[in-house]
Specification:
single chain; Nucleotidyltransferase, domain 5; 2 domains; seven-stranded mixed beta sheet; about 15% strand
C-alpha cells in the first residue's frame, strides 16, 4: 500500500498512529490507516542505500498511497545518457520522452522514481565523490570546473579513455540498481589484478572506492532529510487591476519543492474596490472550509501586518488554532516588489526562509497569471 524510508523506524511508525492523523498527514493517509495493515521493514547500510531501495520498490510495486499522494509527472529520475561518454543527470518524469539522448536507451539507463529532488541531488553528490562522472562538460575541450575539483574524471580534457570511463558508468549503474555487494566483489577483483600488474597507483584508487562504499558518508543526506521532513507550506496572494477582476490563489511547497497539483484559484465574489485584506479573508475562509485538503504546517501571505492579522483571525475562526504546530508568516515587499522582511513566527522565518520565499514567489506569479487570464476572458 505504501513504501517509505526512515532513519528512526520507531518515530516514523508512531507518526501514523497520532490522534490527529488527518490534520497532520491528510485524509489519504487517514484512509490508509483505517484498512487492515501489516508493517514490513528492511535495513540498509546507509541512508543513501535506503533512498535507492525506496525508489526500486516503488517502481516494482507501484503502491497506491505513494502514487496517489504525488503528481507522478514530478517524480525524479537519474538518467544515464546514451553517448560515447555518457552523462549522469537528473530529470523529471514529464521530461523523459522528450530527451533525444535516451531514446532507444540501453537497459539500466534510467533509475527511479525518487519522490524528493533535493534528497536525490544530495545523494548524487555523494555518489559522484566515489565515482566521478561527466554531467555537462564537452569532451576534448578545456578543463571543466568539476574536473578541477575531482568530480569529473577528465572527459573534457581527454584524460580518461572511453573504455575506462565505461567501467565508471557500470559501477554507477550497479550502485543505483542496489547491487552494492556485486559491485564490491568486482572492485576487489579489479584491485587484485591491478596490484598483480604492479599498477599500484590505480589499485590504490580502487581501494579508496571500496572503502568509501563500505563507509558511506551521508551525513549531508541525513541533514537534508531532517530539515525538509514532511513540511507543507501554503502561500496566498491577491491580484487585481484597480479593484477589478479580483482573484486569489493558493500555492504549495512541500518538502522544499513546489507541488502544482495542489494549487488552487479563487474568484472573489461580490467585492467592489481594491481591498486586499478583505479578499484575502475570503480566500482563506473558503480554503479552510475544505477539511479534506491536506493541512499546512506553515501559512505564508503576501503583505504586511494587516495581512498577518487577518490570517490569524480567519484561522482562529476556522478553529485551526487547535493545531499548535501551525505557523503563520507574511512577506513584506519593497517599492520594487522585492522581499525585504518576513513577519510572524521568526523561528520558522529563519529556518525555512528559502522555502517561504519560493512559495511566496510562486503565489505572486500564479496570481498574476490567473488575473490576466480572467481579464482576457471578460
Amino acid at each position: 500500500m505504501y513504501i517509505g524510508k526512515a532513519t528512526s523506524l520507531r518515530n516514523r511508525i508512531r507518526s501514523y498512529f497520532a490522534g490527529d492523523i488527518a490534520l497532520k498527514r491528510g485524509p489519504l493517509i487517514e484512509k490508509m490507516m483505517l484498512q487492515k495493515i501489516r508493517i514490513k521493514f528492511q535495513e540498509t547500510d546507509s541512508v543513501l542505500e535506503a533512498l535507492i531501495l525506496e525508489a526500486e520498490l516503488i517502481k516494482k510495486h507501484n503502491p497506491i498511497y505513494n502514487t496517489k499522494g504525488k503528481d507522478q509527472r514530478s517524480w525524479n529520475y537519474v538518467v544515464i545518457t546514451r553517448e560515447k561518454f555518457p552523462r549522469v543527470l537528473i530529470h523529471r518524469e514529464r521530461e523523459l520522452n522528450s530527451l533525444p539522448l535516451i531514446k532507444g536507451r540501453v537497459q539500466g539507463g534510467i533509475f527511479g522514481p525518487f519522490p524528493n529532488s533535493s534528497e536525490l541531488r544530495v545523494a548524487l553528490k555523494i555518489v559522484r565523490k566515489i565515482f566521478p562522472f561527466r554531467d555537462n562538460c564537452v569532451p576534448n575541450t578545456k578543463p571543466c570546473f568539476n574536473s578541477q575539483i575531482g568530480l569529473c574524471p577528465g572527459v573534457c580534457t581527454g584524460r580518461i579513455s572511453e573504455k575506462k570511463y565505461k567501467i565508471t558508468i557500470r559501477n554507477i549503474k550497479l550502485f543505483f540498481q542496489g547491487k552494492k555487494k556485486v559491485l564490491l566483489k568486482m572492485l576487489e577483483k579489479e584491485m587484485r589484478v591491478l596490484a598483480k600488474q604492479k599498477n599500484f597507483e590505480e589499485a590504490n584508487k580502487v581501494k579508496k572506492q571500496i572503502f568509501a562504499l563500505q563507509h558511506i558518508n551521508d551525513i549531508a543526506l541525513i541533514k537534508s532529510k531532517k530539515e525538509g521532513s514532511n513540511l507543507r507550506i501554503e502561500a496566498y496572494d491577491i491580484s487585481h487591476t484597480s479593484g477589478t477582476n479580483i482573484v486569489g490563489v493558493m500555492t504549495v511547497v512541500e518538502n522544499g519543492e513546489i507541488k502544482k497539483s495542489d494549487y488552487r484559484m479563487f474568484k472573489i465574489k461580490g467585492q467592489l474596490g481594491a481591498d486586499d485584506t478583505k479578499a484575502l479573508s475570503e480566500v482563506l475562509t473558503r480554503r479552510f472550509n475544505h477539511p479534506e485538503w491536506p493541512s499546512p504546517d506553515l501559512v505564508v501571505v503576501d503583505g504586511g501586518l494587516a495581512q498577518l492579522n487577518i490570517t490569524e483571525r480567519v484561522l482562529k475562526e476556522a478553529k485551526m488554532e487547535k493545531s499548535k504546530d501551525l505557523k503563520i508568516v507574511s512577506v513584506v515587499k519593497d517599492e520594487r516588489h522585492k522581499p525585504k522582511d518576513i513577519l510572524g513566527d521568526q523561528k520558522f522565518a529563519s529556518k525555512y526562509k528559502k522555502e517561504i520565499l519560493l512559495a511566496n514567489s510562486e503565489s505572486h506569479r500564479f496570481a498574476i497569471a490567473f488575473h490576466r487570464k480572467k481579464r482576457f476572458i471578460f
